[in-house]
Each structure stands twice: as structure tokens, then as C-alpha cells.
Amino acid sequence: MPGKEPSIFTLIVRLVLFLVRKMPWFVLLFVLAHTGHHIVSAMLTPLMPYIRDEFTLDYTQVGVLTAAYNLAYGLSQLPAGWLADRLGPRIVLTIGVAGVALAGLLVGVSPNYILLAVFLVLMGIAGGGYHPAASPLVSAAVETKDRGKALGIHQIGGSISFFVAPLIAAGLAAALGWRGSFLAISIPTIVFGIIFFMLLGRLGYARRAKPKTSAGETKTLQSGQMCRLVAVLTLGISSMVLLYSSMSFIPLYLVDHFSISKQAAAAMLALCVSGGLWAGPLGGYLSDRIGKLPVLVAAGIIGGPAIYLMNVVPFGWTFSAVLILIGMAQYLSMPVVEAYILSHVSESKRSTVLGIYYLGSRGGPGVITPAIGFLIDRFGFYDTFTIVATAIVAITVVAASVCLWKRELNLTNR
Questions:
Q1: pTM for this model (two decimals)
Q2: What is the enclosing helix (H) or strand (E) of 412?
Q3: What are 29-51's pLDDT values in tens digits?
């Protein structure tokens, strides 16, 4: 109809198309690979109410299951990155897609709680090499001025997985159960992983990667930059860990606090991860234009209050808006931290620093998620969400103060 305002969905699609335009097809290939990398593991959280009921788990045990994957996933980042430098990215990337899906098959047939945790550990180990191998290749495919944007576009792939997984899980679990859901997703992902392996061979990545080095790239850390790098890593890792760990309990919170169905709770998690479809690319785009630190600080200032608001807003459209804000805060900063590392660290140390970031941001939930589950068991959701919200805001303020203080010292000493 003439004069009709475009829907939010239409605006998001326009924003994504604007950000994706003129991206090399190589980057778009890795968007698909990123989707395959995360799609199986993304099924775990929305299916957790079903898993909890079958094995009769408390919140702490639920946190341990989530930790089994995340801790193994994080700890494997450093050795897997080292392995990618020796074997080349092709093998590591393929294991990061097909290997994760193969572990998903084992999860679907696990007979008890212990073996389920073991298979989730195997899934985490298989997936550990994807990001250390993929991010430098994506970054090398574009000019330095578009680095944040490219990494944000790459993030869309993973975000699609976490967005559609709750929707797929809700439908598949009703028809096939949680076990059938894992099997139905894992099998086609294994097929894609094999195709991806062949495509990488045709592109010349059968052996070691040869990333390009952009002209004018920062080669060494200058005075004061090391402290700022630590502050940026701390801010990016803590925000990711606390938000992701809290999100792991949202389906259970919706079921237990608002008494909604398991299917509806699983589907509502998609509101959180929808932020990755637009907030990640937008964060990378803005970081290329206005700087990386302002975007990181904005993510923390949004994320902390959003977690607290889950305590006070009623179920309905306002709660849905809060879930979107939480997802926005989580995904806004992820490509920005990667771009900061790739822009401020020399090539010889880049993989190590990226490994540290991935270790903390992907492995940190393996430690924090059980702790949050323990706090919920002891003090309830209200106090736990309040503690998490306060921690996010406090860390953001301290990290931003350190970065600004070091910048002023550098300017004064020039």
C-alpha cells in the first residue's frame, strides 16, 4: 500500500544488503562455512529443556553440560591455531565443520549424562580450529579499511546458525525429539563439510595459507598500546562470556518463571541471536568509520542494563525487545575485537593473540556458565541477573578508562 512504513524485518534486510554489497565472493563462501560450523552446537541451548527432563538435571548440571562444549572449544583454540599454521587451513577448517557435525551425531545417540558430556567435549575440540584459521583468511581478502566490515559479514554465518537453531529445534523436537533433532541437522552438515573441503582445495588452500599483508599495516605495538590491547581483550572477552553464559539459561528462565511451553521458549531464543544478523556487521562497519573503542563501550553499556531488565519487564513485546538488546550487545563487539587485533598486532604474533581472545571468549563460558547455574540454584534468577549486569557495566567502565588514560599519556608524551 502507498505510504506504508517498512517493517523491522525489511529494514534489517536492507541494512544487511547495504553492508554485504561489494564483498568478495570468498568472504561469502566463509559465511556459509561459518553457518555450518555453528549450526549443530547451536542446537544445544534451545533443546536443553528436553535434555534436562530426560536426564533429570538441576541448573548446575545444565551449566556443566554447556561448559563441556564451551570449555573444550575455548581451550582448543590455541593448539588448533598452531596446527593450522603447520597443516594449512584446509584440514582444520574441514574438521571445524564436518568434525563438529560428526560429534553431533554422537550427541544424538548418547545413552546417559556422562557420555553426553564427553561427546560435547569432542564437539568443542573439533570446532576449536575454525576461527583461528578463518578470520585471517577473511581479513586478507579485503583492504584494511574494510577489515571490520568483512569480519562482521563473516559473523553473519554464525549468527544465522544461532538464529535458526531455536526455530528449527522447536519444530524438529516436537516431531523427532531432541535426539532426532541433532541427527537431522548433523548429517547434511557433514555433507557440506566435505564439499567445503573440495572447494578449499580448488582455491589453493590444500597446504599452508598465504594471507596478504595490507600496505600501511601496523607492524609492532607502540608505547602504551600493549596496555590498551589488554583492556580491549578484557572488555571483549568479559562482555562475550557474561552475555553468552546468561543467554544459556534464557529458555529455562522462560519455562520456569513465565510458565511458557518448551517450544515457545526455544523459539524466543532466536530473538537474542537475531542481533548477529545485523549488529555484528553494523559493529564492524561503525568500527571502520568511528573507531573500535566507542563500539566496544556501547556494547557493554547496552548489555549490562539489558540483562537486569529481564528481572523487571513483563512477558510480552517488552521482554522480546530486551532479548533483542542482549543479542545486539553480544554480537556488536565480536568483529570489532578481531579487527582491533588484526590492525594492532604484528603478523608474527597475530595468531597467538587471536588464540588468546578465542580462548577467553569461547572457553570462558565453560567456566562462567556453571557458576551462573550455581548462583541460580542458590539465590534465584533475580539476584544472579543483577550480579551479571553489574559486572558487565563495571568492567566496561574500568576498561574504557584504562584505554582513554593510556591514550592521553601517549598524546602528552609526544
A1: 0.71
A2: helix 381-413
A3: 888 899 999 999 989 988 988 89
